[in-house]
Amino acid sequence: MEEESGYLVDITSEAEIYYYDLLKYLYSTHSVESADRKSDEILDMALSLDKMSGRGRNEDKLAFLGLGHKYLLYELTSRKKVKIIYFILESEKKVFVTDFFPTEMNDSSIEERNK
Fold it and tell me: N or C end of the chain, less CB within 10 A?
């Protein structure tokens, strides 16, 4: 069986800022152990796009950008989730993670955060 060729995962500088904002939230609302585990799992989920980049759902709110944005959903709690938003640049075999978006935020801010 032939192994699927990998992609390079690039977490944009804006997405890094959003990830650190998410960490601040996690460490202020969860135990240290829980925040450590969840922050690792979220980052691992983003980095796993190197092998299975096409598995996410389309992010319709970003369709106007024409980049085919998708997202993976990470469940923080039964009510709170984080969208890991990304697009794929096939010509460069790269996945660009553009946001770690808490779903309890107003959905309309996805567009502003991902321009």
Answer: N
